[in-house]
């Protein structure tokens, strides 16, 4: 069984800030948002966690391995270097969406995202060393079969993008509804999902669903480890195996000790 | 009539680079992608253009006001500071998607995105000063009605995100298919579209369609100017008018001289 | 004769901000300072100007080619993305230090650097197109002879650094006192100076003085152009000539039409 | 007694890279250097170490608390995101300059800084947890008395800068020669020194020497702890005490258990 520690990163009072006293230059907002995300990616990533840009004013991270001091420091450092501050809510659950539910609720209870007074909330609990196991985190890394050949080198960029987006929108809904998994587009033709303990047949079903609904063909590599970086890197290598072997689903190691035939 | 100058920014040989000699740490890739986008946002934005992160390895920009020297300098500067290089293809057309078609084709003719030899292509033409008019660029800025109240403060972040994504996926397809307009999610609950000459009724139809198909309620502010920044800032102000007046569609100035009743 | 347009960039109220309400983490201040400088380097540099980190809370730029709108935009963009704001004072004079005197005075008249109320001053005048000539900017690029062989590969890094610093401190004083030139250490073993119209003999004297006083051997390449980037790039190429020819002073083109023998 | 762990960060083959195939735009080099330093400041700083920009192609860090895995990860992450790579040499000694000597030698033995083949050296040893004590790191934070009143608000920026530089050049030589301490200008009117176990009288002597030699009046706060961040933050607070009490030297806690009268 997995045990995901999810952290929601929410910029405090961002909507009002972007238009006060007047609307700000859009490209400056894009720059601020992207660089704030990049800093989170470095802080969390160098501690072996993963963070996803999501909506930029709200970002989802899987933070198995980061403790209270890490979260506190991250919040302080952002507050020292940006014109905005962040609130951090954390939750832990075998189901990723349940963990995120707890994380989000921790912030919602403290106040609205656009509350003029709510700043730098730090809520929730963190997995201690002894509580962690090597199957806590399951990361699935999907990509589109021959995206470059089928889309990038053939269609105009927006039509390529529409294809990838439709595939993503379909996969994100299906995995959340069926498994409580959280999926994030990470660039190119890549989607990374934070999953509960799912097996090869589950991934095959998801891929079949996306092909039927959106006409987009995916393949997936899956990794399981105590931390997101290790699980995610195993997933990348498993995806390379798909690429070389011509397979569709590759798990880097059995789920819960059960040997699973790759497909 | 609009006259959009679209530039496609494509990282050369990125897919292979990310896995050679071995797959690279995902959070380092996220950092590189985001910071590269942020630099493009600053360069293009400070020349009054707009750029959208799109797929990060392929990014779409509307560059009315940027000439050949600007594109060449941008390419050189990125090449001096990143471990990757970029190719830039540009196209001009009243229809945004047609302009992007030309831009994309310019790169495709030079070689594949994953061509080991193709580097730093610079293709296409640029609007000269005398060719430009004050109705060249039409920017629409959509946001979701009361996203904070309905989603952010109520649902867990991923379910809020799914709602926004479904709304975006529906709007992006509709506007591209009906009008050749290109729509980009820019964070929070905001979508910015590069449009041809559309009127208030067209925007109303789009909003109705998204509400019917995805259950997401949008409002929109629209601006028209010679450059993206001015058009986009007018659109932001028009959106503030929607917010204060309770309206759904506001155009900052008439389209093609025809007075259009806002709705 | 040169005609330098110097801009002083000063962070408003920075000293107090760094310790209010409590002293901030030093590495966060270093990060903020460096990234602010980097953004200035990109904005000014992409418009063919040069900016030097100087004291980080006060930075000196040579901005021939940047006008009032450019300065205003730079100020606005920084204000949108950092937790601090900047004041910009500009001055124009054949003598670089006189131009900087004017630039500095413009800010001083508006209020103290640590004035709780003074924010985002924009003072001074800017060279118009017709006023500019191809000899406005003289840039000298010095480096230390065989720094890698003599210092970097021989001494511990701090002792190498002391040597470079002593050479820099001596050169900066001499050139300011003798010629009103402004010298800036730019990394490695490189110093870039903003000079008035000086000839090869003047540079030779300066190099002799530094060798006598600090025991550090320099060579120099000099460029003259309408803008800092072109002058600076010519200076770099002239320095490469020194490196290949074994010479000590190389001017990329004659000063004021007088042919000057390189030495 | 102190026990400093010093790490030298050296960009591999940087000199040649900056001019191959042609000299690169100076402002792009300044941007790359500053952003690389900022990333080091974040990585090392978030692990409670300190890093100083020094010469930018060679940077000095005090890394008590960072182990082999941390150094390895830092090197990998930079290699993934920049067009250059870094070598890291580490040394440990009660004397900061001796520790840096070891750190530097580790790289020099592997090859020249401009060796076409030497890349990503990782040399030296790291303090283990049990080896560390609460007096390992002594950080002194100097600033200039009333720099704003005396210089910034009175002189043109370059003449203010010359004053600060002369003060720094004098202090850096004196502290290195007398105590093996390493001093770094960190912006504004601030200098931070990595010191061995020195007492209040030693600091008073140094301040007297700088006033006599360079005419610059300094005051200093000193901290002692197991890690640079804690020692440095204590030093900042001690400096605030100087500011409020009108004193010249303040130690945040006694050196080696001996109560030292502040002066």
UniProtKB/TrEMBL annotation, chains A, B, C, D:
Lineage top rank: taxon: Archaea
Entry keyword Hydrolase: yes
Listed Gene3D superfamilies: 3.30.70.270, Nucleotide cyclase
Reaction equations catalysed: GTP + 3 H2O = 2-amino-5-formylamino-6-(5-phospho-D-ribosylamino)pyrimidin-4(3H)-one + 2 phosphate + 2 H(+)
Keywords: GTP-binding, Hydrolase, Nucleotide-binding
This protein's record includes keyword GTP-binding: yes
GO terms for MF: GTP binding; GTP cyclohydrolase IIa activity
EC number per UniProt: 3.5.4.29
Residue ranges of the region described as Disordered: 108-133
Function: Catalyzes the formation of 2-amino-5-formylamino-6-ribofuranosylamino-4(3H)-pyrimidinone ribonucleotide monophosphate and inorganic phosphate from GTP. Also has an independent pyrophosphate phosphohydrolase activity.
NCBIfam families in the record: PRK02240.1 (NF002587)
Protein family membership: Belongs to the archaeal-type GTP cyclohydrolase family.
Protein name: GTP cyclohydrolase III
Species of origin: Halobellus litoreus
The organism's taxonomic lineage, starting at the top: Archaea, Methanobacteriati, Methanobacteriota, Stenosarchaea group, Halobacteria
């Amino acid at each position: 069984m997995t045990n995901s520690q999810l952290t929601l990163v929410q910029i405090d009072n961002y909507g009002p800030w972007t238009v006060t006293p007047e609307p700000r230059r859009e490209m400056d907002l894009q720059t601020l948002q992207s660089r704030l995300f990049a800093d989170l990616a470095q802080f969390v990533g160098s501690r072996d966690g993963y963070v996803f840009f999501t909506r930029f004013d709200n970002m989802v991270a899987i933070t198995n391995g980061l403790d209270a001091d890490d979260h506190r420091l991250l919040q302080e450092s952002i507050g020292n270097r940006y014109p905005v501050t962040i609130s951090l809510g954390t939750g832990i659950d075998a189901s990723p969406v349940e963990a995120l539910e707890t994380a989000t609720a921790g912030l919602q209870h403290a106040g609205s995202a656009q509350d003029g007074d709510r700043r730098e909330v730090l809520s929730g609990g963190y997995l201690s060393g002894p509580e962690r196991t090597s199957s806590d985190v399951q990361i699935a890394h999907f990509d589109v079969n021959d995206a470059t050949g089928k889309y990038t080198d053939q269609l105009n960029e927006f039509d390529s993008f529409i294809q990838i987006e439709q595939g993503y929108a379909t996969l994100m809904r299906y995995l959340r509804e069926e498994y409580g998994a959280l999926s994030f587009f990470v660039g190119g033709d890549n989607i990374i999902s934070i999953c509960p303990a799912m097996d090869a047949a589950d991934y095959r079903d998801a891929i079949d669903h996306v092909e039927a609904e959106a006409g987009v063909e995916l393949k997936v590599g899956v990794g399981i480890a105590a931390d997101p970086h290790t699980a995610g890197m195993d997933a990348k290598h498993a995806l390379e195996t798909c690429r070389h072997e011509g397979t569709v689903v590759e798990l880097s190691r059995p789920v819960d000790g059960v040997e699973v035939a790759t497909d």
